[in-house]
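Researcher: Let's do a round of design. I'm pasting the structure tokens now; please hold your answer until I've finished.
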């Protein structure tokens, strides 16, 4: 029997780990446990960057992105720009299980969710409406993604189950005040999440544009496949984000990565602005850890 492990992004990842870790210890599959953990965060209105109560886009709409991936088979599903549905990660799983597709977007994703029995819901809370009204952008089309620490956060949950299988879920309301129609890394397989039993699992959080640019999660899993530890692989991904930011002459982005190997080792690293904390369930306990921050190397 494999010793279960689960990791999840940010301090609110503790909500996910507290839900997923006992399930893993009862023999629940990695994907089911990760999904239950992610759903607990989606449901928590105090988390203003995931699911219910997420901060709206530039025109005041809460638009959700999510994906799931099963390391046994590389089965995966995703939704992007999903509105008025409270559990986008569950919808992503249905895309994986019930359709021949991987990604559904916008109105089509909502139609599919409704056909699958998900209820329509308002995702606003009085607090999220007030936060949006207070901080809404002045400019119609911003030129720089608003990637400050209070403008984003995603829950990415990576799990290893008792049978030695990996599963992962990534779910978010995306960058606060994003343009309508903007999609970040979170629902994109290989960017916000990648899971393969034969190499490892990785997930991302932070400014999605910078994560997409380097195909962050796929890059990390392929580094593990080539023999790097999860920690080494995450650090290499952060270095690549930094190098890309330097080449483009932009300020270092706020980006962080998590990884989990098939034998239960984990890794985490972030760019300096991200100041990334994550939750870990392993060896009978749940703890909060801080990732290693890596700055751009001197030219
Ligand atoms: C996005 N990566 O939409 C997401 C936002 C976020 O931590 O994570 N943040 O770009």
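Researcher: That's everything. Go ahead.
Model: Designed sequence:
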């Amino acid at each position: 029997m494999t010793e279960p492990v689960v990791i999840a992004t940010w301090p609110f990842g503790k909500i996910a780990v507290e839900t997923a870790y006992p399930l893993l210890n009862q023999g629940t599959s990695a994907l089911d446990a990760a999904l239950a953990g992610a759903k607990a965060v989606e449901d928590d209105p105090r988390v203003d960057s995931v699911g219910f109560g997420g901060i709206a886009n530039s025109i005041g709409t809460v638009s959700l992105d999510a994906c799931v991936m099963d390391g046994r088979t590389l089965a995966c599903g995703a939704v992007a720009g999903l509105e008025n549905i409270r559990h986008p990660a569950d919808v992503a799983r249905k895309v994986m299980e019930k359709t021949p597709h991987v990604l559904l977007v916008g109105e089509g994703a909502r139609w599919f969710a409704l056909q699958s029995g998900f209820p329509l819901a308002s995702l606003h809370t009085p607090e999220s409406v007030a936060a949006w009204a207070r901080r809404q952008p002045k400019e119609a089309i911003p030129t720089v993604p608003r990637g400050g620490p209070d403008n984003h956060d995603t829950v990415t949950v990576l799990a290893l189950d008792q049978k030695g299988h990996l599963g992962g879920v990534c779910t978010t309301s995306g960058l606060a005040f994003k343009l309508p129609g903007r999609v970040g890394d979170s629902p994109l397989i290989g960017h916000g999440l990648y899971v393969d039993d034969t190499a490892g699992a990785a997930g991302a959080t932070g400014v999605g544009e910078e994560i997409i640019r380097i195909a962050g999660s796929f890059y990390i899993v392929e580094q593990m496949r080539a023999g790097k530890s999860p920690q080494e692989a995450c650090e290499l991904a952060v270095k690549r984000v930094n190098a890309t930011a330097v080449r483009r002459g932009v300020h270092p982005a706020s980006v962080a990565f998590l990884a989990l190997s098939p034998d239960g080792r984990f890794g985490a690293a972030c760019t300096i602005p991200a100041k990334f904390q994550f939750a870990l369930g392993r060896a009978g306990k749940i703890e909060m850890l801080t990732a290693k921050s890596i700055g751009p190397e001197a030219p």
